[in-house]
Amino acid sequence: MPRLSKDKSRLTYYATDERFLEHATQYQMKTIDWPPKPDSSGKYSKNVIGFVEEYPAEDAPHAGLHGYEMHICKSNYLGNSNRYYVLQSMIRGQYRVYIADLEKQDSLRWLNFLDKVPEHFREGEYQLLKAVGNFIFVSYSQNNQPPKLYCLVAEGIEEAKSSDEIKFTPVLLDEVTFDESIQKEINSIQTDVVRLENGAEGYLIRLGDDRLPNSFASGAPSGKHPIVTMAHGGPFTAFSRDLFNINYIYQVLQGYCLFIINYQGSTGYGRKFLHRLLGGYGTLEVDDCANLTKKAIADFGHIVDGDMACVQGLSYGGNMTAQLTSHPEYKDMWKSAVAWNPILDAHFNSLTSDIKDWAFATIMNRPMTSFKDYTKEDMILCQ
After folding, report:
1. Distance from CA of residue 336 to its chain's centroid?
2. Do you find a cis peptide bond into 38, omega within 30 degrees of 0?
3. Are 293 and 309 contacting, i.e. CB atoms less than 8 angstroms apart?
């Protein structure tokens, strides 16, 4: 969503040069001095945050600008300044809130308002709710910590010569609480990361080793947790690795190990990783889900019962569920499956999808570079 600064001197907006429409992607951030006038080269806009192509290192400050439209719409200027811009973006399964300095190239400051030290940077999920004036409202949660609502009060905006000079004071406004007996169980939840060499990741969300519910312990001779693999929809989106999700909590408290997967094509891992799925539809992401599940079972064999594996997914994740349960190599991995609102009919979905051009690109199993790609040969859609 384009936004004018309060003094109407600068327009800031997100842009991309994708070859097709998709649910979520990586963006650039651009600005235009207002009223618009061209520079010496005839251009009106300036690119202030560029694309990040490579896979981000563990300690990388950001991985570019990723997200859905609903995340982009919450971006806004900080205070009365036309220089500092508040936004939310994902890096390797974690949403963070940033301040962009619009007068410097690729200047993004993560608002680490909880003062986490490096070994805990990857913990938690920061969700931008609203930025208005010098106030930023943020929800913070973890898999084992219900959401807390913070207001970040900014000081020194107008005088700051860089975003690092702006002081933010967090004020805890409210928090979600549970009955003490339930919270005790929630507190024991932990998350383990499983990663393939190609960069695909899975997050194993589970109860602590000593918290296996009696109902499962008595019914399972192994005394281990059944594992539920979840494939996200999109496919260009990503699961949050450490977000308090009541659906996740319910399953984990029943004794399941919930294994959520960010396969190749997920957002938050650089643009090259995002675009790998083009031309690899039906193979790369399916292999990632199966191989990550195998690795989780092998790495956590003392906890996970590999003979009690389930797979589930919504929308595009439902499509992957169907593929995994019918795949000649992977179909015997699963005891059960849930395909929720799955995309199964290529003919129907190519006409009704809200990302039609991507649907055609995947049906033809190659990147879309121009409309001519779709007129060079006949295409038959079978129902």
Report:
1. 26
2. no
3. yes
Assess contact for 11 and 347: CB atoms under 8 A: no
How far is Cα 267 from Cα 283, in angstroms, rounded to an integer? 18
DSSP state letters, 26-82:
EEEEEEEESS----TTS--EEEEE----SPPPTT-S--SEEE-HHHHTT-EE-TT-S
Give the span between the Cα atoms of 94 and 230, in whole angstroms: 17
pLDDT in tens, 242-255: 999 999 999 998 88
Going by C-alpha positions, the residue among 90, 16, 10 that lies closest to residue 49 is: 16
Q: How far apart are CA 180 and CA 207, in angstroms?
A: 17
Question: What residues contact 250, with CB distance under 8 A and at least 6 apart?
Answer: none
What would the mean pLDDT of 103-128 be, rounded to a whole number? Answer: 93
Strands 257-262 and 225-231: parallel
- The one-character DSSP state at 23 is S
User: How many CA atoms lie within 13 Å of 71's alpha carbon, on the beta-carbon side?
Assistant: 21
Residue % of the chain over a pLDDT of 70: 85
CATH number of 181-344: 3.40.50.1820
* Domain range summary for the chain, segments of one domain joined by +: 3-175, 181-344
Any idea what DSSP says for residue 375? T
Residue 218: the pLDDT is 38
CB half-sphere exposure, 363, CA atoms < 13 A: 24
pTM of the model: 0.87
DSSP classification of residue 211: -
Q: What is the pLDDT of residues 114-126, one digit of tens each?
A: 999 988 888 999 9
Average pLDDT over residues 303-329: 91
Spatial contact of 309 and 226, defined as CB atoms under 8 Å apart:
yes
